[in-house]
Amino acid sequence: MTGTTTATRPGGHVPSDAAQGLRRAMVWEERVQRAAHPVVYPAIRGMRRLGPVVRVPGLGVVVSDAATAREVLLDTERFTKVGPGSPAELWTPVLGPSVLLNMEGADHANLRRALSGLFTPRAVRELTGATVGAVLDDLAPRLLAGRHVDLVAQTAAMAGTVICAMTGLPPTDAAVREAMTAAQSVVGLVRLHRRSLTPAQVRHARAVLARLSEPARAAYRDGDESTVPGRMRGLGLTETEAMGAVGAFVLTGTETIQSFVPRLVALAADTGWLDRLLTGDAALRGRAVEEALRITAPTPAMLRSVRADAHVGTVRVRAGDRVVIATISCCRDAGPFDPDTPTSPAVRHLWFGAGPHFCLGMPLAMAQVDAVLDALAPVARAGRALEVTDRAVARGVLIPAYRSLELAAGAAAGPR
Ligand code: HEM
Question: What residue ranges define each of the domains in the chain, with the CATH number in brackets?
Answer without folding.
Answer: 10-411 (1.10.630.10)
